[in-house]
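Lab notebook, bench 4. The sequencing result for the construct came back, and we need a structural model before the next group meeting so we can plan mutations. Quick request posted to the team channel:

Model the 3D structure of this chain.
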Amino acid sequence: MEDSHRYSSQVLRRTNEGHAKEGKTDNTKHHAQPPQLKHPRAPDMILFRKKVDLF
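Done. Here's the predicted structure in token form:
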């Protein structure tokens, strides 16, 4: 049990560290625009499809 728990905690730490390092470099660049582009488009497409289905 201890070994498996230790392993899982190590894996979690590694992934968190990797995301933290990548996030600091990438998020500042990518989070400025893509959220505005991606999020409005996806709902619009869903709404558009629903409207087409209704009409």
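The first helix runs from residue 2 to 30.
Will bring this to the meeting.
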